[in-house]
Amino acid sequence: LRNFAMSKVTIVDVHTHVYPPRYVSILKSRTTVPYVRDTTPGQPSRLIILPGEDSPSSHSTAAGRPIGPEYYDINAKIAFMDTHGIDVSVISLANPWLDFLDPREAAAVAREINYDLDSMCKTYPGRLFAFGALPLSGTTDVIVNEIERLPGYNYMRGVIMGTGGLGNGLDDLSLDPVYRALEANNMTIFLHPHYGLPKEVFGPRAAEYGHVLPLALGFPLETTVAVSRMILSGVFDRFPKLQVLLAHSGGTLPFLAGRLESCIAHDAHYRPEGRRSIWDVLKVNIMLDAVVYSELGVRAAAAASGGDRVLFGTDHPFFPPLEAEEDAKGESADGKQSEKWLSVTTNYKAIRDAFSDNNGQEESVLGGNAIRLLRLA
Ligand code: URA
Ligand code: ZN
Question: 192 CA to middle of ligand 2, Å?
Fold first, then answer.
């Protein structure tokens, strides 16, 4: 009999971002999105990354978000982890990763950023692992070359990727060498949105609603479309061991998987040979983070991929408490380091409530699944 009162659950955060200082320097050298802008003296710099975020219609003096140490200082990450009871974090570069780089510099920057990430992990042995970044604006040779370097690092467990691929999305057959190399090197893809949906979808009043529509809906739908295209194009039939961790509990994939299957079953123009069902792919190739902020969402994720494939995450340093941003008055959003973040406590509660009738599953989602699936032990 295990004594639960005595045993502390290991908590692993698989969705937590950092911009190594070298990446912040790149953003500071730029004047178009993505970039970091030093505004009024005494005020924090602002991080402007999302498509259209600096357009005049989104009242440009307040464009973006303040960027402070929580974005680039690994000690701030550890402080955040300590405040929230997180033992281990699998850090990843935040969007838009290396997507915008000149193809000629992509390979070198990817090498440097991956070195930086691994070095950060080294400063807190056992507490940090990483998803590396790929030089996706480069050639497939360059990308594959970087993938093959990753196992040489101590702490790399995969790569974070957006939905653009080489420019034509993730169902592009030219990506096969990339998928092949990731599968062969046991590197999980952490698939994360950035580009959202075309802004027309949100209508002429969108700016009145801040970032709510693009972040709450555009992001997850972008992920849903991207992974659906991977499935439809047979990526998981050709690479049956490829592992993909989907941000934000897979967007709406758990909810819409049945409809996808049904549309496939009724489409006379799409008749692939030997196609695996989406339900099979969900349980074998897909992992879902638990960054969905509701019990219902966590239950859907667990029903789709299994409670053994859902993994706790925070999305730190995004979604800080609004009061912290205001209180910091020029010192950036990490003002009150010891205060718990609503975005994190909401996800903890969602996991607790989702598995209240199922002891053991909660612990797995909080850390055990990540330790096993990402080989963190
Ligand atoms: N906003 C972003 O730009 N990225 C995230 O990961 C979360 C919110
Ligand atoms: Zn994120």
Answer: 7
